[in-house]
What does this fold into?
Amino acid sequence: MAQIGTFTRDETGTFTGTIRTLTLNVKAVMKPAAREHDKAPDYRVTANGGVEFGAGWTKAARETGAEYLSVKLDDPSFPAPIYATLVQGENGEHKLIWSR
It folds into this structure.
């Protein structure tokens, strides 16, 4: 697992940070979204400038009950979607961890 992003959370629940991979370097925002049904995402991911390129679902770890976001990022320029987990780190920092 590799860390591909770092975010901070504000009082409204919005995460702001940067996502970096070998081909991607973008400032991003994960904003709470109004859910229209059970499978709708809890968060929408947008690049700086408002282009939506992902979504996040709130989950809880089985063993600890700690909350995290399950994130899916996608764009026509990607060969395949990127799946990642946003977890709380130290000092209010949240880490975006990529997995395959």
In short: Residues 2-99 form one domain. The CA atoms of residues 88 and 94 lie 4 Å apart. The chain has one domain: 2-99.
